[in-house]
Amino acid sequence: MVLAGIVALLGLVVVAYGAYLATFLELPKSDDHPPLRLYSGPFQLKPDLPLVQSHLLERLQRLGYRQVKTMQASGDYLLTEESLTIYLHPQPEAHVGATMVRLPLEQGRVTDVLSPLDGTPLFSIFLEPELLSGVRGESRQVREWIPLAQIPPQIIETVLTIEDRRFYSHFGIDPVAVGRALWTNFTKGGVVQGGSTITQQLAKNLFYSPQRTMGRKFKEALAALVLEVKYSKQNILESYLNEIYLGQAGFVSIYGVSEAAHRYFGKTLQELTLEEIAMVAGLIKGPNSYAPTKHPELAKQRRDVVLRRLKETGLLTEEARSRAVKAPLRVTPPEDGLTDAPYFVDVVLRQVEEAGVAPLPEGMRIDSTLDPMIQQAATESLERGLAKLETTYAHLNQSAEPVQGAVVVLDPKTGSMLALVGGRDYRRSQFNRVFQARRQPGSLFKPFVYLAALEAAREGQVGQLTAASLLADEPVTFESGTGPWSPQNYDKQFHGPITVRNALEQSLNVPAVQAAKTVGTKPIVQLLHRLGVTSAIGEDLSSVALGSSSVSLLEITAAYGAIANGGIAVKPTAVRSTRDRQGDIIWNDTPDRQQATSPQGAYVLTTLLEGVIQRGTASKARVLGLQGTVAGKTGTTDGYRDAWFVGYTSDLVIGVWVGFDDERSLRLTGSQAALPIWIDLARRIIPPTVSAFVMPTGVVTRTIDPKTGQLATSQCPEQVSEVFIEGTEPTVYCEVHGGGIWERLRHTFGFS
To answer: Per residue, what are the HEC states of 574-621?
Structure first.
């Protein structure tokens, strides 16, 4: 009697729970909760584009373009020694149709962008943006819903064969499959086969956690029964094929057979070959275990199991199976299909929310500034560089917490973040060291001390200096809030009178402090803030001249970007625009820019920073093969806790930081720890023929004697060419070595 009551009670519970499920369980539809989609910045096709350094062919492959011998449809490209012709995909969001362009090539560089029809030049031609990530709730995922009628029958048959052969004959639970699985597992002595139907798998994926418990299995089975009652087999199968989890592209989850076809093979479902269909179906059993991008051998084995099963069930001939098994496993691209930029995605979402677009609407499109190829190069350079440091310097491995690093790449003209790597492993730490960390920049502040003095000379203010001015590198003591302070150079030596150029190239502390004292700390702090440094900066000599105030890598890199941009500071941004589900603009980013310093001062400072790489603390860059016109500065903080290098061309500025999160000493300088990472990245993304910095009007060149900083004469044993803001150049000829009569006559009468 008691047993009967318990059974009846359990029955009531089951009926009640079933009724509850019948009320609330809903299969998703194609327009339900679409994920937010995040896209890269567009890539412009323009003259003088280097084919190799721009990674143009790799970009085409990542976007699904096919190399052909005869151009037929959008998505084709034809490469010869003379030219590259591309049939561009349409870009509906930009109201641009499919367009064919021809890029003539000369010595590996694009010489023009032409119409293949009449040879006329084309302007503002861009490759379409690349999908970077999708976001649904707290999950990063991508998916594309395809109606069942548009999914090729061979894909459906393959999935049913490998996952649920009796799908159309069971009612959500398959007793035959359950019995077969129990017997197989018993004879094999472990769990080697499951008995879940497609309906059960769908219920588990949509409504329950993946935990393997009896309670979860019971709920899953009951939910499967309810789904079979509420929906047709076609509805269930369509949801399954679009919602099934099929692996990872970096930190982004891939859902559905269509997205898997695109991510792993760069194809639509209709374009998949037999062996590729078998691979997609085989992924269902273990998406991460059999991912062809990560485990190609296991993936091929699993693919061949699926092909054998198709042969055994009569869906495949032995000849077709044998041919498919022999086919190599080709994945396009060879890496994960989505750019692995989790720190950048965080920055994008934060910036959009700060712009007032919150909460983030479903189905929103965000067009970002990221360059996928530069991001990939930055990620690899940081990983490789930190690993090499740990191999070279054993003391870096003496802690449970690894040495960290960060990289950011900006376009100085637009402020666009082209790449951002906030740490070496996002899974272990989501702390973004590019803009969340505040660390002492050390010698990175010295150029701005000298820039303030150059500007003072231009304006006729107190503290004026030129690149040729002499500073005293000798013992000196200053009064500070904590008592007398005597700055020291890195080598503990003093070098006597030294020009501003040589002092900066050698990153000497004492001359920098002398210059800061002369010009005053307040103008330097104001200059730094105009250049984009938003952190609070102390107005004492140590904070300003030796960089003991804390800043982020992003803001100090942006400050150098302003110098690269002729003194125009542009606030860094990760977002270009946002659109709603209908494609209408929600928000457009407007560049925030200001003239922070004169073009003349910026140019003179750039020439000084070119010397840092040619002859100074970063001269190993040339030894390691860096080519092109590049300026930059090392940074090392007191106690060797932080190592920095920021360098730039007229088109790119790259910032690198290396250190420990707990601020332990690296026992390495910026040139030892940060510069090698910077060089590795720069060699990959900066072409060797990069344009030289353009001299603005208002800058003059003079030949000087570096020992005196005065105009050189024929008697001077050493003569160097130096640049000056016009009106600040020296007018006195060398008073140490004598001579100068002929030079004065030439100058007076205008002889060359």
So the answer is: CEEEEECCCCCEEEECCCCEEECCCHHHHHHHHHHHHHHHHCCCCCHH
